[in-house]
Amino acid sequence: MSRPVRLIVCINRRLGIGQASCAGSVSLDLISKIEAMIAADQLEVPVIRRECLGRCETGPVMRIAPGGPFFTEIDAARLVDIVTQHKAFIESHHAE
């Protein structure tokens, strides 16, 4: 049995001056936008908030799980592409 597909969003905020982080790079603002887009496309995909995905320097970071691609340096314009790739991943995941 395969694990359910989900979208993981890093919400880590590193402390210290000049420390790059996903929350410091607006990942929290992007969560509500991508959740609305997922709902509008009637996808049953949970958006999971995680403290760190280990790629702070390239944040905000999202990942399709299980085993899907990472998306880095995300801005609002890239969300459409992420949702499109998520749909394709779901289709291929369910085909297995």
Write the layout of secondary structure elements.
Elements: E1 6-10, H1 27-40, E2 47-50, E3 62-65, E4 70-71, H2 79-95
Parallel strand pairs: 1-2
Antiparallel strand pairs: 1-3, 3-4
Summary, kept brief:
The chain has about 100 residues and is α+β, with helices and mostly antiparallel strands.
3D structure, described in words:
- The chain has 96 residues and is an alpha+beta fold.
- The chain has a single domain, classed as Glutaredoxin, CATH 3.40.30.
- The chain is built from two helices and four strands.
- A four-stranded mixed beta sheet has the order 2-1-3-4, covered by helices on one side.
- The model has no long low-confidence stretch (mean pLDDT 87).
CATH class identity: Alpha Beta
Task: Give the overall form.
Answer: globular
Structural class: alpha+beta
- Using only C-alpha atoms, the radius of gyration works out to 13 Å
- The end-to-end span amounts to 10 Å
Give the strand line-up of the largest sheet. 2-1-3-4
Sheet with most strands: 4 strands, mixed
Strand and helix order: EHEEEH
Low-confidence stretches: none
Fraction in beta strands: 15-25%
DSSP summary: helix tally: 2
What is the CATH topology assignment? Glutaredoxin
What is the residue-averaged pLDDT? 87
CATH architecture: 3-Layer(aba) Sandwich
